[in-house]
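Quick question, first post here. What does this chain look like in 3D?
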Amino acid sequence: MGAGMEDIYSMLNKNIGINFSDLLDNYNEIINYVSKNSDSFSVISNLNKPYSKQPPNYEHENVLKVLEPFLERYVIGIKSWPGTITKDNHKVMITYRLCKESRSLLKEMPNFFLPLENGLPEDICFFRNQKPWFVTTSHEKTAFIVDATNEDVSYLKEMDITVYE
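> Answer (accepted):
Ran it through. Tokens below.
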């Protein structure tokens, strides 16, 4: 095994941090990679009154309308999600199925890594085997991969994206 491969193998089964600026610089390529390697993705929005409405009335409903055919579920009043814990009672996690069509729509949308600047919901998270694996925390400008595979690490290195153990 070459010296470089030991570094890759030592990162496996760990969370690895990702340089957020590198994500911004490679947005389309990253979205393409993570969406092809995911079952679904979620975003976090703020509930609007009336809070008890079903389906929920939420802040980013109009911008996410295009993804509605791929909607899997809402988690209303969520207080924790990958990367974040809050005391706020008025959050909703919206999860969408990923497939060729939803991936295409996702790539056409503005940059989800800069949600506030683009009027989008926060904290996009991609799920692999129904578990969070590519996680962002928008307001902190952080991202990490849970249980990175050899393929994940190789891809990030190919893209010249800095990772942290």
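The chain has seven helices and ten strands.
Confidence is low (pLDDT under 50) at residues 1-11.
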